[in-house]
Hints:
GO molecular function: translation elongation factor activity
Keywords: Elongation factor, Protein biosynthesis
Structural class: alpha+beta
Oligomer: single chain
InterPro entries: eEF-1beta-like_sf (IPR036219), EF1B_bsu/dsu_GNE (IPR014038), Transl_elong_EF1B/ribsomal_bS6 (IPR014717), Transl_elong_EF1B_B_arc (IPR004542)
Organism: Methanosarcina spelaei
Distance between the termini: 12 Å
Pfam family, one: EF1_GNE
Amino acid sequence: MGDVAAKIKIMPESVDTDLAELKEKIKSVIPAGADLHGDIVEEPIAFGLKALIVTLIVNDEEGGTEPAEEAFAKVSGVENVQVIDVNRF
Length: 89
């Protein structure tokens, strides 16, 4: 088994969500076995709404991103969590 880089898109609940605060909350819930790779990037969506793109290094075993997805989905201010890309690291 090896490691993969997984890009996860996190949509905030609204345009008014404080993204700096949301980034800190997301960093604080990254599960054991997953490492943040680089910074959390803001991606413009539409009408002032921005998504957060988190790149994690996780083991490539089945369900490798699920603990992170579940943790991010429980964060206050998060509307939706979606894995958008997975590549060998």
